[in-house]
Every structure is written in C-alpha cells, then in structure tokens.
Amino acid sequence: MSTAAEELHHDDHHHHAPSGIKRWLYTTNHKDIGTLYLWFAFIMFLVGGAMAMVIRAELFQPGLQIVEPNFFNQMTTVHGLIMVFGAVMPAFTGLANWLVPMMIGAPDMALPRMNNWSFWILPGAFTILLASLFMEGGGPAFGWTFYAPLSTTYSNDTTALFVFSVHIMGISSIMGAINVIVTIFNMRAPGMTWMKMPLFVWTWLITAFLLIAVMPVLAGAVTMVLTDKFFGTSFFDAAGGGDPVMFQHIFWFFGHPEVYIMILPAFGIISAIIPTFSRKKLFGYASMVYATTSIALLSFIVWAHHMFTTGMPVAAELFFMFATMLISVPTGVKVFNWVATMWRGSLSFEVPMLFALAFIVLFTIGGLSGLMLAIVPVDFQYHDTYFVVAHFHYVLVTGAIFSIMAAVYYWLPKWTGKMFDITLAKWHFWCSLISVNVLFFPMHFVGLAGMPRRIPDYALQFADFNQWISIGGFAFGLSQLIFLALLIKACRKQGEPVTDQVWEGAEGLEWELPSPAPYHTFETPPVIK
Amino acid sequence: MAQQEYEKYYVPDQSPWPIVGAVALFLIAFGAGNFVVEQTKGESGSGGWILTAGLVTLIFMLVGWFRHQIHESMAGMYSAQLGRSYRQGMAWFIFSEVMFFAAFFGALFYARVIAVPWLDGAGNNAMTGEILWPSFEAIWPLVQTPGGIETTAMPWTGLPLYNTIILMISSVTCHYAHVALEKNDRKKLKMWLGLTIVLGCIFLFLQVEEYIHAYTEMNLTLQSGIYGNTFFLLTGFHGMHVTLGTIILIVLFFRILKGHFTPENHFAFQAGSWYWHFVDVVWVMLFFFVYIL
Hints:
The complex is a heterodimer.
Chain A: H1 2-13, H2 20-25, H3 30-58, H4 69-104, H5 112-132, H6 159-186, H7 199-230, H8 244-261, H9 264-278, H10 285-298, H11 314-342, H12 351-374, H13 376-382, H14 386-416, H15 422-448, H16 463-491
Chain B: H1 2-7, H2 17-41, H3 47-74, H4 80-119, H5 126-132, H6 159-182, H7 186-216, H8 225-257, H9 267-292
Helix pairs in contact in B: 2-3, 4-8, 4-9, 6-7, 6-9, 7-8, 8-9
C-alpha cells in the first residue's frame, strides 16, 4: 500500500496519476514502456516457441506426419522472424528502457513520446506477420533470411505483407535505438563520465549505433525484394543483370551486425551480475569497453562468412575467414574477464548468478562452434546442416535469452519491490538448463553427420537423436511456463519485500533507489563521485 | 551549469498522438501489402482504401503532433537540454537515412563492379558467360540485359546537370536563410528560405520531366534491368526525400511568417536545413555515380 501512496505522491510533482488503459496507451514513462516491451517480448517468445514445438513434433519421427512441408517452412520462417525481431530485440529494448535512465541518473528517456510510438507500432507489425499465416497461400515460407529467388520468384503474394511488416519492425528498432543513444549522450547525471558508465549502458550504446547503421540496410533489402517480386525490377535476377548472391551480401551486411545487436546487451548484463555475486569489482572494465567497441566495428567486415558456399573469389573467402576469427579475440577477452572477476571472489549462487554462469559456459560453446564454422574449408561441410542450427541456438537461446532471464531475475525485485518465488525460479533454471542441452547439443552430432536444416523429413539414421532433440524441445517449452507463472506472481506483487540494495553485493545507481523504483526517478540529478 | 539544466528538466506530458501514429502505420502496412498484390494482379480489393485511410491518419497524426509540439515549444516549456536531445535525435535519424541510401548505392556498385562483369565471364566465371548468355557483353550503363531487354542510358548533360546546379544553389540559399535567422534579419530569412523552396520545386518539376522523357522517349523504365532499377530506385527515393524536405521547408516558411523562431531557439529550422543539406549531398553522390560514371 505504501508503494501506491508513494507513486501518487511522486506524480503530484508532475502530471495527474495515469490510470486504466490510457496509462499504457499514452504513456511517456520509461518504466511503463519498458514493462510493455518486456511483456510483448515474452508473449512473442511463447508464440515463436509454440511454432518451434510444431517443428519438433514433425521432426520427432522421419517421414511426414503432422504438417505439410509448405506449412513446415512457414513455421521455421516465422519462428525465426518472431524470435529475432519479436522476442530478443524487444526484450533488450525493454531492459534498456527500464535500466538505462536509472543507471545514468536520468529522469526518463530523452525522447519519451517517440519511445511510446516505437513500442506501439510493434504489435501491429507482428499482427500483420501472423495474420499472413492464415491468408490464402499462407505466410512467408522462405526462411527468416528470405533469400532471393525464394522470396521473389518462388514466393506467394503475402510476401508484400511480410515486406511492410519488416519495414515497421525496422522503424521501431531505429526509433528505439535513437532514443537510447541520445539518452546516453545527453542525459547522464553530472559526474557520470564515459568510463564510469555501467557496462550495460556501454554495450547498449554500441548496440544502438549498430541498429541505426544496419536496420536501414534491411529496409533496403526488403524494398528490393518487393520491387523484384511485384514491379518487375531485377536486382536479384541474372537475366536483368542482377545477381541473387547480391541479395545475400545486402542481407548479411545487415545480418551480421544484427547478431551482435542480439548479444552485446547480454554481455552488459553478465558484466553486471557476475561482480555482484562474486562481491568483487569487474575485472578489466576498460578492456571490456574496448572489446565491445572492437566487436562492433569488426562486425561490419565479416558478413560474407554466411555465404562461403554461394560463390565468392578465394581471396574474399580468406579475408572474411580471418576477419571472423579475429572477433574471437575481443570475445575471449570478455570471457576471460568474467572468469577473472570470479577468481577468489566470495561466490554465492542466487538465481541470476545461476543463469549468468550457464550463460558463460554455454555461450562459449556456441562461440567455439562459431569459430569452427568460420573456417572456410570446414564450413563447406557444415553449411546448412543442423550444426549451424546448434551453433546459433547456443548463442541465441543459452546466450541472449539466458542473459535476458538472468537480467529479469536480477532486476525484478527492484521493479516490483518484492522477491520473486525463489523455488519456482530454481525449478525454472534447472529444467531449462537440462532441457536446453538435451535440445541443442545432439544437433551438433546430426549436423556433422549431414542432416540438412529446414527439411521436414530426414534419413532414418538420424531418428534417435531427433527424438532426443524433440523431447528436449518439449521440456524446454514447458519449462518456460514455470517462468510465466513466476512472472504473473511477481506482477501481482506477491512475495517478501526487499531492501533497496536487494542483492548484498550490488553496486550502481539503480540500487540506491527505493524498491520498488518510484514512478519518476532522479528528477534532481544524483551526485556521482 | 549542467546541474541547473537538470532541475529544469521537462518530462513531456502523456500524449495520444503516438498511438494514433501506430494505428496509421498499421493501416499503411496492411493496406499497402494488399494494394501491391491487387494492383499487380489487376484484382479489385480493399487494399487501396485501407492504405488511404492509413495515410490520412498519418497526416492527421503529424499535423496534430506537430501542432501540439509547436504549441509547447512556443509556450517556453522546453529546456536547453531537450533542444540538444532533439538535435542529436535528428542527426542520428539522418545517419539512418544515409545507411538506407547506402543499401541502394551498394547494389549499384555490386552490379557494376561484380555482377555484370561476372555474367560476361570475368574472374573465374568464364563458363557462366559461355553457357548462360554467350552473346552477352558487359558494359555500363547496361543498355542490353542478358535477357535481351534494350534501353538507353540517361546522359548527365541537360536536365540532370541543371538539376545538380539548382540543388547545389538551394543548399547555399538554405544556408544563407539560416545565417539571416541567426542575425535576426527576418526579411532576408524569408527571401532566402522562399528562394530555397522555389528551387526545390523546380528541381522536382524537372525530375518529373526527366522521368516522362525516360519512359516515353528513351525506353528507360523500372523494368529495364539493373541499370534502370538502380537509376529509378536511387533517384526515386531521393525525389521522395526532396519532396519531404520541400514540405518541411514550406511548413517552416509559414511558421516564420507567424513570427516563430528566435536567433537562439530554432531547432525545427535547424533540423529542416540539415535535412535539406543531406538530400543535396545525396544528389551530388547520385549525379556522380549514377549519371557521370
């Protein structure tokens, strides 16, 4: 009750207390918008997850049982699009909205109304994308990478809806990124110098730069697909002097920095959690900043490692191979620093720390399989097999998504003022950890043995592993329902009240605020020593 | 210094406009997606109406949001810090536009330097040329595609050259308008800005003339293979940006007539002039890479 009174009291300084649906529709408050982003991302995570369940059910046995091949392709395509643009990216934007202003001592985001707009265009974009699944001819079925000519010559009419919905997702991401970058440049409290900023702020600053640089290129790529399909251009058609390989260059010029857009904020989260539960300062703060920056810059010159088998001069393949392998240096610096932070620390294993530790181990597995894929002659064998699927699910699920879960567990008590249900959280962690490895680890084996991705049927010898994979998949899917139950309980403000610092070793401006964080924070700037 | 600015920090009130804008974008995307299909198939459907409804809603939103914004700004509610946020936001927005054009310039360079020569057997692709289109010759501008479509190349002399001169002069007049605003010389401000708008309109008129000429007399169309594709998409998107820039300048002109903007406080004018310089720079790139080279 005291929280509600406090909120009202705070609002008196400003505007009348928002209430009902208008609070959410008209909001300019970074915390409300952050909450909207996070719930939207979670709903999309469940929707995209349901599609993954369809995929795994079909692949439980060889042969075609449950769905038509065309519908299977729609499932793989929309699963990918939803998880990338609907789940991981909005979740990180939601975390940025909640945390960046509190971490740098700002009262809100720099452009609060645009912040509202950039969220509220997202549900429309995904409504269009999902609605296309139920239209004549079905939804997009060309893979989330929409390679030409699959998306031009051989696609159906709903491609137009796909194109415009991707445009809106891009507009949303660009506006969100402009907001974050301007907030960080212009709204830091006095004394919050660049090299005092928490790493989550640093990594998001660089992520925002990547977003503004590459989302417009994606917009260009979908525009060319639209004109090729409907207006008779031939950007990706050799008969008109174009080239389908050009599509892949343009797409992956967006696509590779996009990969770092989905992992750099995760690095920031892990760099916040590990020191707290090690009760030590982060080892090598400055080197973390430089490593993040160099990863971002290198990400612009490695895109063609996604296309080693699609036709390139050998010199170009070698260049992209070495540039790609170079990225493992700054990434290695990061992993080293996290381990060195824990070295001789007083470790304790609260739920956020469990997810962070799982992140370090499993993300590194994904990173190492990425290094294998970077080697040109080896990639000729691995390309488009389940080995690739294993690789990017290790970096995206046990990497990006585990970091988002770690972040939610870490900051949730600050947001609600109550400790979440720790028993449920531990069940969620252990069920997820075990099932996710049953799900994705055997994919390495079937991939190396030659099972291709994006095919609803497979050779008999892969049956055993695929059954394991499917069982792991269903278990991982069900484990997320534990998370859903936990989040609903947390939003109803059930649980023990927490202190302002919440975690014993937590440091930073957000932990000096009351728990729950009041509706408006830092109306006067904090003093940073 | 910074301390004082913070205490004046202005958190904008709740606003209904973003949600109106979200509805508008939803209608535009959904309508356009259906409209494109209906048009290319010659079917009738509701796509065009939904698209129109979306565009009307968007204009309604823009007018409403900007009115609200101008009203707040004129009431002196904004702080210097918010002005900086707006300027930085505009700068990053222009950067995103640069990257949008970069995608199409990238397509142009890739086609010219890599795709077209490869089709003629350059590099280690001798068999590509030999087997697919043995009679194809790689030249740029690509006036005959491998598939056999013929077209003619747009020369850089004539209209494109006039347009380049017009747009470059307009960048200068726009700059002098800004200088006049900073010196609080309202008369010169109106003159220079008015001149910029007139030049922008002449540019757009000549651009339309050029398109008509290309379609009716030169057989240069959107379907003319990669040369026509890059030509029309680059100049077309640029033309759309000039149109938007001209509308922005016209709005600024009417605001100046009403006595808005001071030498110290004129973010909207600055943003509009940045945008204008940006479309000019894109045109210079276009003129060089699309027309001359």
